């Protein structure tokens, strides 16, 4: 009998996809518990990204990797459900900025706390060196993605 896990046979892309579930499940469960059961797919990302910086639609389109039309529909849904507001960019009237409503800020906070709980659990299961190696590897993958897509890194907030 071996101590091998079925995860040992998975490639890194499969592991990354499967690993997202820990965060996704925690965030969805926290949203449901807090009464935010109407947040659409990719909504948690939009809340987090918008919390950091009022995002123009073009930025979200690049980062989510979905069409401009799909992002616009996502934003429309979140505006109608009271999570976001659109406002004209004072520097470029052709652009719209997306900002959080009070409800959106509360939902973003719920999401952040759920993700932090997963981070805490991860820290308890890895050595400090293992956690740093994970972070370093993920940062390299992110940088490789930015290089291949010519997507600039998000602004520091």
Describe how the helices and strands are arranged.
Blueprint: H1 12-33, H2 43-52, E1 55-56, H3 57-64, H4 68-80, E2 84-88, E3 96-100, H5 102-125, H6 128-149
Antiparallel strand pairs: 1-3, 2-3
Helix pairs in contact: 1-5, 2-5, 3-4
Report on this model:
The protein is mainly alpha-helical. It has a single domain, classed as Arc Repressor Mutant, subunit A, CATH 1.10.10.10. The protein has helices spanning 12-33, 43-52, 57-64, 68-80, 102-125, 128-149; strands spanning 55-56, 84-88, 96-100. It has a three-stranded antiparallel beta sheet with strand order 1-3-2. α1 (12-33) packs across α5 (102-125) and α3 crosses α4. The longest helix is centred in the C-terminal third of the chain and has 24 residues, at 102-125. The protein is globular and about 60 Å long. The termini are far apart. The model has no long low-confidence stretch (mean pLDDT 88).
Strand content: 5-15%
**SSE-based structural type:** mainly alpha
Give the uncertain stretches in residue-range form: none
CATH topology: Arc Repressor Mutant, subunit A
Radius of gyration: 18 Å
Helix fraction by DSSP (H/I, runs of at least 4): 55-70%
CATH class equals Mainly Alpha
Our measurement of the CA-to-CA distance between the termini, rounded to an integer number of angstroms, reads 50 Å
**Individual helix count:** 6
């Amino acid at each position: 009998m071996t101590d091998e896990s079925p995860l040992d046979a998975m490639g890194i892309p499969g592991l990354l996809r499967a690993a997202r579930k820990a965060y996704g499940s925690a965030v969805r469960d926290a949203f449901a518990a807090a009464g935010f059961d109407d947040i659409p797919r990719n909504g948690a990302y939009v809340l987090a990204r918008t919390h950091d910086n009022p995002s123009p639609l073009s930025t979200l389109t690049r980062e989510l990797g979905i069409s401009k039309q799909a992002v616009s529909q996502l934003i429309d849904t979140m505006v109608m459900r009271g999570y976001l507001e659109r406002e004209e960019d004072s520097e470029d009237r052709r652009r719209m900025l997306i900002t959080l409503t009070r409800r959106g800020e509360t939902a973003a906070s719920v999401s952040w706390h759920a993700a932090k709980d997963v981070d805490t659990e991860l820290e308890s299961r890895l050595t400090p060196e293992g956690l740093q190696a994970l972070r370093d590897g993920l940062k390299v993958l992110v940088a490789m993605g930015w290089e291949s897509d010519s997507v600039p890194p998000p602004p520091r907030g």
